[in-house]
Amino acid sequence: MTFLGKFDKFFILKLAKAEFIKKLKINNQITATELRVTGEEGNQIGIMSREEALKLAQEKELDLIEVAPMAKPPVARIMDYRKHLYREEKEEKKQRAKQRKDTLKIIRINLNTGLNDMKVKAEKADEFLSNGLRVQVELVLKGRAKYHKTFADLGRQKIENFLKLFNAPIKLISEIKKQPRGFNVIIAKK
């Protein structure tokens, strides 16, 4: 029985995950008889048989990875498979970070929200803004308040007062709009 270190177990799990997602064929898993081979930096080595390509990869102590199986002939690249997985993971993290920045957080208040509660909600919204997120502030009107002009004026004034509570400078992405359930405005950090 062999002992696997912490790193080895982690790498095996990563490898299994990557192979499950990408279905990349490496080394002896490649079934094509003829391959277009590229080097580590992406330079063309040429078209050669699978055995020659495997031998060349073993001489350089690297892996042969099939990167474009549908091409004629299939394209294989000589590179370190662990480094390839690491780069893919970093790229995936960047994509997730970009998706997170596009999310919109919602803060709801109503006409009866007190000043201290509004300060707490403004602090939370400040935290979202400092993380680079956009915040939608909604003022919810209930019952008859949705239809009376005086309540609408009070609602607009309440949301304007809420926007004055922010510590950091903000910019309005959308103006204060009347919606069927009340008012809303989208803000971001300046």
Task: Characterize the structure shown.
This protein is an alpha+beta fold and 190 residues long. The chain folds into 2 domains: 17-96, Roll (Ubiquitin-like (UB roll)), CATH 3.10.20; 103-189, Translation initiation factor 3 (IF-3), C-terminal domain (Translation Initiation Factor IF3), CATH 3.30.110.10. The model has no long low-confidence stretch (mean pLDDT 79). It is built from 5 helices and 9 strands. The longest helix has 21 residues, at 81-101. It is 42% helix and 29% strand. The chain has a 5-stranded mixed sheet. A 4-stranded mixed sheet has the order 6-7-9-8. Helix 4 links the parallel strand 6 and strand 7. The protein has helices at 6-22, 50-59, 81-101, 115-130, 149-163, and strands at 25-26, 34-38, 44-49, 63-68, 75-79, 104-110, 134-140, 170-179, 182-189.
Strand order of the main beta sheet, please?
Answer: 1-4-5-2-3
Number of strand segments: 9
Helical fraction equals 40-55%
First-residue to last-residue Cα separation: 59 Å
Report the CATH topology name of the largest domain. Answer: Translation Initiation Factor IF3
Brief account:
By secondary structure, the protein is α+β, with helices and mostly antiparallel strands. The chain has five helices and nine strands. The longest helix is centred in the middle third of the chain and has 21 residues, at 81-101.
Structural features:
four-stranded mixed sheet; Translation Initiation Factor IF3; 42% helix; alpha+beta; five-stranded mixed sheet; 5 helices; Ubiquitin-like (UB roll); 190 residues
